[in-house]
Amino acid sequence: MDRNVPLLAVGASEIYLMWREAGRTGDPAFRFLSDAVAASFTCYLPVILFACKIPQFGLLVIPETVASLAMAAGVCRDFFRGTPDLVDFEPVSEAAVSQAGVE
């Protein structure tokens, strides 16, 4: 159980930061992602804490896996949908790169 304390700390911090940024930017895709991470950790926490004493808690890995799949599907959908920032991207010319001294 002690080895899972860092996982819990990182997960709680990640959820807090994602919720804060999703609220600040108003990005619905990022908000969905933060909610899915919260659902995943909520289902996985009892498994970490109690599965050794109550093996039935291991079944909570199923909704945790569904939340993880939802995250992957949401990220994939948003990635392939594209964003206006990426569509308007113009590559930098080689002359500008050599002028800046970047190799």
- Oligomeric status of the shown chains? single chain
Count the helices. How many?
A: 5
SSE-based structural type: mainly alpha
Helix fraction, binned, reads: over 70%
Gyration radius, to the nearest Å?
20 Å
Number of strands: 0
Strand content: under 5%
Query: What value does the average pLDDT take?
Result: 81
Distance between the termini: 49 Å
Overall body shape: elongated
Low-confidence runs of at least 5 consecutive residues:
none
The largest sheet is: none
Taken in chain order, the helices and strands follow as HHHHH
Short description:
The chain is an all-alpha fold. The chain is 74% helix and 0% strand.
Describe the structure.
With 103 residues, the protein is mainly α. The protein is built from five helices and no strands. The chain has helices at residues 5-25, 28-50, 61-81, 84-87, 94-100. Helix 2 packs antiparallel against helix 3. The longest helix is centred in the middle third of the chain and has 23 residues, at 28-50. The chain is elongated, with a radius of gyration of 20 Å. The mean pLDDT is 81.
Write the layout of secondary structure elements.
Elements: H1 5-25, H2 28-50, H3 61-81, H4 84-87, H5 94-100
